[in-house]
Each structure stands twice: as structure tokens, then as C-alpha cells.
């Protein structure tokens, strides 16, 4: 199937928002993950656009959307999506989110329940688990590596390869490279004040979500990510949990057929 995607931009109060759009019918909003942009959803949208009107915005500070000099928060992203939907005159939608996008989608449903038919959340962020603080501290430490030390270690790479800690260092270096590509995700997930992030976490609020939800999780993900999905599934009153056993952390891109089929079944089951 060949799908015609429409790329658009709209000025909202915080900056210019870019989105991809295809299809017609019931509106479905796709919110991308922390280390992605809206292109993450292209394959899923292509499959679903025959039956649904699909929209995938780049979150503010990501992709082709503007990156203004503002204080980023989950609530800011929620308000940007609210303004986006208002501008497009979309009164009620399904929200589909992956990772950070799922956190934003769930937060939106808590704040604007009357505008949401239902939620599909893939490997959602936004709840606290054991070892969470250790993970935050590790990410913050990676971002604070002194540039001079990194340069010196790279110069010493031929010698360092013989040392036991070198493989771990290379993994950390690759992770840091990814983090630097997505500065807004870093600000949202671990570069704000710890207390500010904790206030926006949802583990004590999920029971207030009034709309049906489907939680999708790859079976090959880490135990921490699985634990977060289980908190969502156990806390949202109308939640269904589904595991895609052989899937990893790239559900929308590599398991398009499974994800699109589950989204379609969910919407048809609650339409």
C-alpha cells in the first residue's frame, strides 16, 4: 500500500510544531519516544491510515519542531499537544505513545479526560521503580564527562583496549553520543531537579485515568522497562496488558504488523 503523508507546521504559543499526517476517519495521535522523532511511527501509520486519521507530531524540542529556550516539562508537552489538537479542531482522539510519548499521553488523559477515547501505551516511562534514582545519577554522570578526559581516553584507545574496564567505557560512550543527539529528552528525563521530575511521575495518579488503555510491551526489554509497564497495567482501572514475546525496544519500527494490529483491534473494540 502506498500512503501519501502530509507534512505540516503550525505555530503554537511555545514555538513551531511539525507533524506528519495520513488517512481519514477516527483521529489517532502518535507520540514518539525519548530517543526518536515522529518518523518512528511512519510504518504503523501507513498500515492504519486506511481506516484512521493518523497524526504524528514531533514533540516540542524534537525533530523538525522548534527547540525554544524554555524550561521543558511533561506538563509543557501536554499543553503543546492540547494546543495542537485545538488548532486542528480535533475534539476527541485516541492517543498512542511510546516511552516518553506514553508518559505524555497518560498525563494528557489525566488532565483532559473528556478529549481522549483511549490510550495505547508502548513501554511507557513516567513511573518510579527500584533503582530509578541510580539510573538518573548514571545518566547525569555521563552528560558531565569532562570533554578533555574524553579526548584523552580516545587518544589512548589502542592501549586502553587491553584494560578490563574498556568495554564498559565504550558502551557508556555510545550511550552518551545518543543522549547528546536528544538534549530535550535528557532535560525531561533526568536533567531537571529531582523533585520536579518526581512531581510529574504517575504511579500515584494512574488509578484516576478514566479511559480504557492497552499496554504493549516487548518481551526482550530490560526488567526495569517491564516493571514500569506492569505498574501501568496494574494501576489503570480499564487497562489491558499485552506482551509481544520476541520484541525488543523498537516495537513501532520492527514489529509494525503486531503493533498496528493491536492498535486497530483496541480502537474497534472501544469504538
TrEMBL record:
<dbReference type="InterPro" id="IPR029058">
    <property type="entry name" value="AB_hydrolase_fold"/>
</dbReference>
<dbReference type="InterPro" id="IPR050266">
    <property type="entry name" value="AB_hydrolase_sf"/>
</dbReference>
<dbReference type="Pfam" id="PF00561">
    <property type="entry name" value="Abhydrolase_1"/>
</dbReference>
<feature type="domain" description="AB hydrolase-1">
    <location>
        <begin position="27"/>
        <end position="249"/>
    </location>
</feature>
<protein>
    <submittedName>
        <fullName>Alpha/beta hydrolase</fullName>
    </submittedName>
</protein>
<keyword id="KW-0378">Hydrolase</keyword>
<dbReference type="InterPro" id="IPR000073">
    <property type="entry name" value="AB_hydrolase_1"/>
</dbReference>
<dbReference type="GO" id="GO:0016787">
    <property type="term" value="F:hydrolase activity"/>
</dbReference>
Amino acid at each position: 500500500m502506498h500512503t501519501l503523508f502530509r507534512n505540516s507546521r503550525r505555530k503554537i504559543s511555545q514555538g513551531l510544531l511539525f507533524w506528519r499526517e495520513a488517512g481519514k476517519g477516527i483521529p489517532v495521535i502518535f507520540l514518539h519516544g525519548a530517543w526518536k522523532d515522529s518518523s518512528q511511527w511512519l510504518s504503523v501509520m501507513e498500515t492504519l491510515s486506511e481506516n484512521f486519521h493518523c497524526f504524528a507530531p514531533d514533540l516540542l524540542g524534537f525533530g523538525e519542531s522548534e527547540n525554544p529556550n524554555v524550561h521543558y516539562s511533561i506538563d509543557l508537552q501536554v499543553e503543546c499537544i492540547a494546543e495542537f489538537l485545538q488548532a486542528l479542531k480535533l475534539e476527541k482522539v485516541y492517543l498512542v505513545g511510546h516511552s516518553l510519548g506514553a508518559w505524555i499521553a497518560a498525563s494528557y488523559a489525566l488532565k483532559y479526560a473528556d478529549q481522549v477515547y483511549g490510550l495505547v501505551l508502548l513501554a511507557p516511562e513516567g513511573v518510579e521503580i527500584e533503582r530509578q534514582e541510580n539510573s538518573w545519577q548514571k545518566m547525569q554522570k555521563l552528560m558531565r564527562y569532562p570533554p578533555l578526559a574524553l579526548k584523552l581516553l580516545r587518544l589512548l584507545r589502542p592501549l586502553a583496549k587491553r584494560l578490563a574496564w574498556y568495554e564498559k567505557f565504550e558502551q557508556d560512550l555510545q550511550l552518551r553520543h545518543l543522549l547528546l543527539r536528544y538534549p530535550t529528552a535528557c532535560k525531561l528525563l533526568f536533567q531537571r531537579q529531582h523533585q520536579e521530575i518526581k512531581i510529574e511521575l504517575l504511579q500515584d495518579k494512574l488509578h484516576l485515568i478514566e479511559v480504557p488503555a492497552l499496554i504493549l510491551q516487548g518481551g526482550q526489554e530490560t526488567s526495569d522497562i517491564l516493571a514500569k509497564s506492569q505498574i501501568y497495567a496494574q494501576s489503570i482501572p480499564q487497562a489491558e496488558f499485552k506482551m509481544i514475546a520476541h520484541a525488543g525496544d523498537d516495537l513501532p519500527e520492527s514489529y509494525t504488523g503486531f503493533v498496528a494490529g493491536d492498535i486497530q483491534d483496541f480502537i474497534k473494540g472501544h469504538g
